[in-house]
Each structure stands twice: as C-alpha cells, then as structure tokens.
Amino acid sequence: MTVDLSGRGAAFLEFWRERHLCSLTTVRPDGTAHVVPVGVTLEPAAGLARVITFRRSRKVALIKGRDGVTAGERFTEARSAGLSFGDDADAFDGELSEIEARGGAIAAAENASGRVASRPGSAPGVPVAVCQIDGPRWSTLEGLAVVRDDPAAVAEAVRRYAERYRAPRVNPERVVLEISITRVLGTL
C-alpha cells in the first residue's frame, strides 16, 4: 500500500524539492546492501519517488527481472539448482546478461520454486530505500521499485529531474525506477 504524503507538512515537501544528493539502497544476491548516490524526485500526490538511470546499471539488474523475479532470486535459485557461475560467483556483478546467458537452467529453477517478487493482491516491485540528509534534517523513503522503460514514463521522470536538479544529458539507454512509497522515516 502506497503512503499518502499529503499530510507530511510543508517542511517535508520543501525538503524533497531542495537540491540534495540522495542514496538508493538495493540488496545484492548475497544479501548485502548496494548503496549508490542518485538524484531522486518525489510526486507526493501519487506516493511515488523516481530515479533515472541507464538500463544496464547494477541497480536496474538488482530490481528488474523476468516475470517479476529479481536478478538476485534467479541467481540464488540457479545456484541452489546446481548451476555453476565460476570461481568468482560471490563477486557476481548483478548484470542481467550474466544470468540470461544461463536461461534454460535458470528458468527451470524459477519454475521449480514459483517465487516471484510480489504475491497476488500486493503491489509489484522490489523493496528499496532512498535517503537524503542535510545536517540534522533527514528523510528516508522505503518502497517497492519497478523499472519503467516506456517513453512517457521516462520523459516524465526526466522532466521532474530537470526541475529539481538540472537537465540530464541525452541517454537512449535511460530507464526510470519508480518507487511506490510504503514507509517514511526521518526528522521531517
């Protein structure tokens, strides 16, 4: 369920309009946190946060998967099914191409487990958090992220990014992470 941000107050909304660098936290296949600096925009009325990035980024690979299954789940399931990823498996870099190349065995692991990123009746997406800090003021938005690549969604995200930060350079590989906010933490 998306959180209604309309009642958070003017200070909260202004903080999310000010130009601040943020962090995005996703989870790697081994369960450790993957934290990267990003620009985040907030659409309070819709309960959405957005991050623009490129489609082959690690953050996208950790969020996006075939049929709602995250890259991390496919890696774990394929490994438990006996698929070898070489000596550097623990250094798995999250790129989908690495997993997709092993499609048959991974598909079998997916079908055997039936695991997906969301259950019927729940919002789709993978749990993430975005955070921004300015001295004693801080705010963390937790939610469920999905990757959107349709031109309208990307254009809207770029428009909002340009309003908060600056116009980004043209990137034909651009996608947007849309985060349906489920929890708000912080001092505002």
From TrEMBL:
One GO CC term, this protein: cytosol
Domain Pyridoxamine 5'-phosphate oxidase N-terminal residues, every copy: 11-185
Keywords: Oxidoreductase
Entry-linked Pfam families: PNPOx_N
InterPro entries: F420H2_bilvrd_red/Heme_oxyg (IPR052019), Pyridox_Oxase_N (IPR011576), Split_barrel_FMN-bd (IPR012349)
Transmembrane segment boundaries: none
Molecular function GO labels: coenzyme F420 binding; oxidoreductase activity, acting on the CH-CH group of donors
Statement: the UniProt record of this protein carries the keyword Transport: no
Annotated protein name in UniProt: Pyridoxamine 5'-phosphate oxidase
Organism in which the protein naturally occurs: Parafrankia irregularis
Lineage, uppermost ranks: Bacteria, Bacillati, Actinomycetota, Actinomycetes, Frankiales
